[in-house]
Backbone:
């Protein structure tokens, strides 16, 4: 090992799920780079399945558990990260995700190679609930400045997750931490990575150094409304970027139409899969109207009804017979059809 020895803090917000948490911790403790600690953020319900007892049973002094005296939602729990004492560099790790044993040594090497970067990342793979391989992430170049990162994000040519990014703890705290105004933290990670990339640039190592876990959805109620709310907040952030930088404004102008219309299509498809009684009054028309209002502020030529699949979604939603048949069809065929 050559170059500077950097110290890392690995933050793991946690609610419940003992097996995944232990698998995650074992992957961290197996690192071939020793200069790190682990901070687990839990609440007063996290030990219902003896998860925290199992953590304490590991008897590893690298691990500290920060338990709240009250039940916290995801926003409140992640919001605590900013106030914790952390090493110079930090990363936020999903409690069900896994690190390769060379993750930290690879990141340390990358920091020494690219000391001016403000954000560090590696490639990764997707796994399912059984830790079986699904696919690899989309490839990235070795570095991305703020304009390149934003362009990738708007064109969805980058896989953006909360796990796997490393940055200075002082930069994170100075930005106020992850923006917790986003419901369920949807788009909050993208907002944060854009803000950190704007400080300098993102440096990427070409090797795959962690696994991001995807679970089959077991949601019983609709998340469509909070997805729309989060998207509208992110469009507001894009408007802020547009006003702060003419370069970013140009990128938003060039790529915003595809981004807003692609997201409109995705939400419309989700809405059709959700019975109207669970939508909290949200319709495709109201969704389009709210996105259109934000798009006008961005100066985007937002014309979703020119897209055949969105027009078809409106027709299915408007005719009860079509709507019911679509819901029946989606019970047996899960892939997108519009």
Residues:
């Amino acid at each position: 090992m050559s170059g500077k020895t950097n110290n890392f803090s690995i933050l793991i917000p946690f609610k419940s799920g003992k097996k995944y948490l232990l698998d995650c911790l074992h992957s961290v403790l197996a690192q071939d780079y020793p200069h790190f600690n682990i901070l687990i953020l839990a609440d007063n319900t996290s030990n219902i399945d003896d998860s925290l007892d199992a953590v304490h049973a590991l008897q590893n002094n690298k691990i500290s558990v920060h338990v709240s005296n009250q039940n916290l939602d995801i926003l409140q729990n992640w919001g605590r990260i900013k106030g914790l004492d952390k090493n110079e560099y930090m990363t936020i790790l999903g409690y069900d995700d896994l690190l390769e044993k060379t993750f930290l040594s690879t990141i340390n090497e990358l920091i020494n190679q690219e000391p001016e970067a403000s954000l560090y990342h590696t490639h990764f793979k997707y796994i399912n609930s059984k830790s079986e391989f699904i696919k690899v992430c989309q490839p990235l170049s070795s570095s991305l400045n703020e304009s390149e990162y934003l362009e990738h994000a708007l064109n969805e040519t980058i896989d953006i997750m909360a796990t796997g990014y490393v940055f200075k703890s002082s930069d994170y705290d100075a930005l106020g931490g992850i923006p917790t105004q986003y419901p369920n933290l949807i788009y909050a990670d993208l907002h944060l990575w854009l803000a950190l990339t704007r400080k300098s640039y993102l440096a990427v190592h070409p090797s795959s150094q962690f696994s991001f876990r995807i679970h089959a959805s077991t949601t019983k109620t609709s998340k469509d409304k909070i997805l729309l709310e989060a998207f509208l907040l992110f469009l507001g952030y894009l408007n802020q970027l547009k006003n702060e930088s003419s370069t970013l404004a140009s990128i938003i102008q060039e790529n915003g139409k595809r981004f807003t219309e692609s997201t409109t299509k995705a939400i419309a498809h989700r809405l059709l899969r959700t019975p109207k009684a669970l939508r909290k009054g949200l319709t495709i028309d109201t969704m389009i109207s709210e996105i259109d209002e934000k798009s006008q502020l961005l100066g985007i030529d937002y014309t979703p009804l020119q897209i055949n699949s969105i027009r078809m979604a409106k027709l299915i939603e408007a005719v009860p017979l079509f709507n019911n048949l679509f819901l029946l069809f989606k019970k047996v065929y899960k892939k997108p059809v519009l």
Q: What stands out?
A: Residues 8-213 form a domain with the Spore Coat Polysaccharide Biosynthesis Protein SpsA; Chain A fold (CATH 3.90.550.10).
